[in-house]
Amino acid sequence: MTAESPERVELSAVLWAAPEGGFTALNPETGTVSQGETEAEALANLTEATELYLEEFPLPARQKPVITTIRVADVA
User: Fold this and answer.
1) How much is the pLDDT for 60?
2) pTM given for the model
3) Domain CATH for 26
4) Which residues contact 25 (CB under 8 A, 6 or more apart)?
5) How many separate domains does the chain show?
6) Measured between alpha carbons, how far is 34 from 24 in angstroms, rounded to an integer?
């Protein structure tokens, strides 16, 4: 691997509509979060934030996370 061709890894992204408008995006592997006016902008901002995070804190292992759903009681 050289500086001109960095290794690319595939990570997860979770998106949801923000109550104030736009979208929030989360990368569960690193805990990075970002926002954008559109889904595409939120993902681009998340990618940038995650790349900056990984420059300081590299991932220790290359495992793909298991992403699923859970059910909780409806809390008012």
Assistant:
1) 80
2) 0.79
3) 3.30.160.250
4) 13, 14, 15, 33, 34, 35, 36, 42, 43, 45, 46
5) 1
6) 6
